[in-house]
Amino acid sequence: MASVYPLLDAARLLHDLQKVHGIAQSLSGNLDPNAVARQMTVSLVEQFDCAFARIWLVEPDGANLRLVASSGLYTHIDGSFARVPMGAYKVGKIAQNQVPFLSNQLADERWVKDRQWALDNHIQGFVGYPLVARQRVLGVLAAFSHQPFAPEFLEVMQVICMTLSVALDAALQASQGDRSAIATAIAPQPLSDRIAAILGSTRPLLVGTEQPLPMSLAYGFLRTAELLQRLRCSYCRLTYDPSSVTLEAIVSQSPYQSGGCGQVGGGEPLLFDDLQQFTAYLGGSLQAKPVISGQAWQIALALPVVRGDLTLSVQVQCRYGVLQQAFTQLARRAGLSLKEPAAVRITDSTVLAAGPPTLWIQQPGRPQPTGVAATVDLNVTAAELLTQVKGIVHGLSG
């Protein structure tokens, strides 16, 4: 049996979730639905490299969707798709059926009205998501890309749509004069309630005082809940400790692809092996073991609660301008902050000054100075750079 989800790049996913957190903050308190929509389409283009993005909102009569925001390749909100009847075209069907749609070969899709347009503009990827709040559809978010959409972006899109739906619901209520429920709409739903909504009849037992979590941690628990529901979860407990949050569950189906009974990391692939990688990246643990003589399985996900911003700060101090520019851009792509005080110094200098621990840029023919915390070479990727910096910081704190 194939894995339900492709293996995700934990560094990229975490970086994208940090960007979503920033977008969510920019939407907070904005009660103009059109402005909320515009902010989101601009963010998708500027921060996620979409070719263009559009948002339609359902009109009050529920019969049509109205285009309210468009950014990127097209910025106009008039034209043939300014109003889309409910159930018409792909956008109208997404709204009517409340089912998302993905294609990474847009020109080959039969429903595309103008195949040549997709070829001429080099559009490959299309994602369309319904925007739903309080069991009613608010609109549709669609994004187009020149490259196939990565699995990490598709995961993040679910979080984006959830964030956008909450912001739009509050803004629409304000514009309609229904301010009595605005505070409820803006307030984030507790994690236990969101897990309960996924699990259905199995209500999680809450132990400890529930507290807001960084978006990356909440994502891990919600993805786990989705898989617990598929594995027929019969018991679930969410525990808040001062330094960690743990989700424990009993399921009746094996979490291993072959249906075997190995331990995590013991050779047999988990159905949620991408979460295992993501969990390890966040410094947590994911365990699965048979119980009741193999008739059921116990699954436990524990993640440490990290106070403050997950973004790490670095100094880039290179002797050559080209290296300075290259590693500055690489640090930004890795989601690293360049603000002072820095946790790590990135440098190619062989003379190490006093200050934060050093991540040294290794080059052919240059001896490594003493006292460096770790090294990278000129082929390092953004994900590898982030891993090295986190390793240095965790090593210092551990």
**Biggest pleated sheet:** 6 strands, antiparallel
Which range does the strand content fall in? 15-25%
Question: Shape, please?
Answer: globular
- Counting helices, strands and paired strands, the structural category is alpha/beta
Average pLDDT for all residues: 82
Distance between the termini: 39 Å
Query: In which order are the strands of the major sheet placed?
Result: 3-2-1-6-5-4
| Tally of strands | 15
The Cα radius of gyration reads 23 Å
Structure description:
It contains eleven helices and 15 strands. It is of the alpha/beta class and 398 residues long. β10 and β11 (296-304) form a beta hairpin.
Q: What's the SSE blueprint?
A:
Layout: H1 10-27, H2 33-48, E1 52-58, E2 64-72, E3 83-85, H3 89-97, E4 101-103, H4 115-120, E5 125-133, E6 136-145, H5 151-175, H6 182-186, H7 191-199, E7 205-207, H8 215-230, E8 233-240, E9 244-251, H9 273-281, E10 285-291, E11 296-304, E12 314-317, H10 321-333, E13 344-347, E14 358-361, E15 374-376, H11 382-397
Parallel strand pairs: 7-8, 12-13, 13-14, 14-15
Antiparallel strand pairs: 1-2, 1-6, 2-3, 4-5, 5-6, 8-9, 9-11, 10-11
Helix pairs in contact: 1-2, 1-5, 1-9, 2-5, 7-8
